[in-house]
Amino acid sequence: MKQIKFFIIFIISLVLVSCSKESITQSEVCTASETHSGHPKTAQFDKLLNDAVAKGFPGIALLVVDSNGTYVGSAGYADIKNKIKMQPCHISKVASLTKIFMGTLAFKLHEEGKLDLDKKINEYLNATELRGIANANEVTVRQLLMHNTGIFDVITDTKFYLDVLNNPPRHRTQMDILEYVRGKDPLYAPGDGPSYSNTNTLLLSMIIDNIVGKPHAQLLHEKIIDQLGLNNTYYFYFDPLPEGKVAQGYYDLYNNGNLENLSSYNTGSGNGYTGLYSNVFDLRDFIEALFIKKTLINQSSLDQMLTFGPPEKGYEERLLGAGCMKDFMLRDKKTEYAYGHRGRDLGYTADMFYFPVSNQIYVLILNYGTDGDSKLRPDFYDLRKNIVNAMMSH
Question: How far is it, in rounded angstroms, from Cα 298 to Cα 208?
Answer without folding.
Answer: 19
